[in-house]
UniProtKB/TrEMBL annotation:
One of its GO terms (molecular function) is polygalacturonate 4-alpha-galacturonosyltransferase activity. It comes from Zea mays (Maize). Residues 65-95 form a coiled coil. Keywords: Coiled coil. This is Polygalacturonate 4-alpha-galacturonosyltransferase. It comes from the Eukaryota. Pfam families: GAUT_1 (PF25557).
Amino acid sequence: MEVVQQDDEALVKLENTGIERSKDVDSAVLGKYSIWRRENENEKADSRVRLMRDQMIMARIYSVLAKYRDKLDLYQELLARLNESQRSLGEATADAELPKSASDRIKAMGQVLSKARDLLYDCKEITQRLRAMLQSADEQVWSLKKQSTFLSQLAAKTIPNGIHCLSMHLRIDYYLLSPEKRKFPSSENLENPDLYHYALLSNNVLAASVAVNSTIMNAKEPEKHVFHLGKCMWKMLMTSNG
């Protein structure tokens, strides 16, 4: 019983804080998006973003209750405010990323939430729905983690064996060549100032190969392009003669 009472008190406090703060939004202060009132200039830079997210959570809960209790006008109003807040919030993670209309959206949402609380408030039911939302979010996170692990393992298994440690294979193949074959063709082009020189540093041999081949294939004069490839502590020079 003590735990339930604490949950109820915390929920009431959260709702009261959100509604009161939405009333006090100072939309006249345009230069600083991280404040609610002029005297609170040290508030965190994402306070409005967090408040909008909290409001949207409560709006979703109240919309379910409104539909269940046949308060269709209130249900439609909550959905409208929810859509407006979602559009204003977008992908913002800081108050500075919010549009100027965000203050009006917060005020409007605060008003409809206050109205919904007067008509629909049921602390026990809201607490249960919040817990259900939290459990659903946890399950979704766990599912995404499992999916990420599976895809990582799948990617590792689907890479052909010949590509594993490709740079090491290439180095071994190079040193197995006879001294005559180790010389780069057209090595005089490495320092020819009349050609186009590119320095490409990458630990990904395949990606570097794709970049070089793509450039050569789409160049008007491929014989004039020279690539200097570097990897980690050793350097490999390559030239292209088309």
